[in-house]
Amino acid sequence: MAKKILNIKRLSDKEIYELSKKYGLQAKAWRRKFVGLLPEIQTRGLYEKHGFFSIYEYAAKLGGVSKKQVQRVIQLEKKLEEKPQLKSILINGETSVNKLIKIAPILDLEKEKDLINKVKNLPCRTLETYVRDFKYERKLQDQNGLFEPKKRPESAHMSTLFKIKEVQKINALGLQLDENIYQKLLELQDKGININEILKNALEKRKEEIETEKEDLAKEILEKEESRIKEGKLPSKHVSVKIKKHLKKEHGNKCSIKHCHKDATTIHHTARFSLSQSHNPKFLAPLCSEHHNLAHLVDEKYRQHKNRK
Ligand SMILES: [Zn+2]
Ligand SMILES: [Zn+2]
Predict the structure, then answer these.
(1) pLDDT on residue 156
(2) Which of 115, 116, 211, 225 has the fewest other C-beta atoms within 10 Å?
(3) How many whole angstroms separate alpha carbon 212 and alpha carbon 196?
(4) What is the CA radius of gyration of the chain?
């Protein structure tokens, strides 16, 4: 024992950090394997044969696994009845129960192979975002009737009702209008002037302004980048303040994915920077960390590069 302590004391900070990281990873992996076996142990009633009152007691005493976690894995295993590959990932402890639970809502909506790819490559929170996006897209398509070929007239009627309700809800929404603006709009409205038309025009004008600014900035940056190349300089690694300001004007502080309300953390190059070597604002998008991970999901080369770092 004393010898072991001495050995640890002799390790450098880096060595002891690496060692603890390795043990941590191994602990997690073995724990996943333990959890993966629980449904089968439950089915065979093995816990009883070994003197445990329940599968929960068994899991807690042998593996330090909580009751909630046991319930989750047993439920999940049932859900994966018709997904043999995903089920084997669970049983072999190749991925965490938490991750597999995240994809449960879209189990029948996507190919098993694609789901496995995502479960294996995406962190848990990114997976959650992916599923949310998937459901959101699906809902939009549903609303457009793509998945309801036999739409009954009643439901069409219902959707009109729904729209009316929606408008009322918007009126009640707390837009932070200045008292002045609010009064002016109210005055105009009282005169029978269409204030929605006025606002719509203002929004369209804003959009056009942003488009024009983007075009100008794109031209400017492309010229700059070209002349850098001519001078034999390496491309700049950074997005200029000017372009950052422009993106902020367009997207505010948030992720540029339409329905995402998270803060943007990265300016993503939609045309991969390592290939394009360009900061053309037409191909820049502020993203939250989850959507940034998703944006790179298909980008195998990027992932390998990141893993090597
Ligand atoms: Zn990126
Ligand atoms: Zn996002």
Answers:
(1) 47
(2) 211
(3) 24
(4) 28
Query: Do residues 214 and 281 lie in contact, with contact meaning Cβ atoms separated by under 8 Å?
Result: yes
Asked whether 91 and 35 are in contact (CB, 8 A), the reply is no
CA distance 255 to 128: 16
Q: What angle do CA 150, 153, 155 make, to 5 degrees?
A: 85
Cα separation, 216 vs 98, whole angstroms:
47
pLDDT tier for residue 237 given thresholds of 50, 70 and 90: confident
Q: Determine the residue type at 258.
A: K
Q: How far is the CA of 288 from the centre of ligand 2 (A)?
A: 4
Distance 267 CA to ligand 1 centre (A): 7
Helices (H), 80-174: 84-91, 97-102, 112-121, 124-143, 153-172
Closest listed ligand to the CA of 266: 1
Ligand nearest to the CA of 274: 1
HSE of 272 in the Cβ direction (CA atoms, 13 Å)? 12
| CA of residue 270 to ligand 2 center, whole Å | 14
Starting from the CA of residue 295, give the closest ligand: 1
Q: Which ligand is nearest to the CA of 259?
A: 2
Per-residue tokens: 227: 């002349």
Classify residue 50 by burial, with Cβ atoms within 10 Å: 0-12, 13-18, 19+.
Answer: exposed
CA pair distance 250, 255, nearest whole angstrom:
11
Q: Model confidence at 60, in pLDDT bands (50, 70, 90)?
A: very high
Distance 269 CA to ligand 1 centre (A): 5
Q: How buried is residue 224: exposed, middle or buried, by Cβ count under 10 Å (0-12/13-18/19+)?
A: middle
| Per-residue CA distances from 145 to 81, 141, 198 (Å) | 30, 6, 31
134-174: pLDDT as tens digits: 888 888 887 776 655 444 444 444 555 555 555 555 664 67
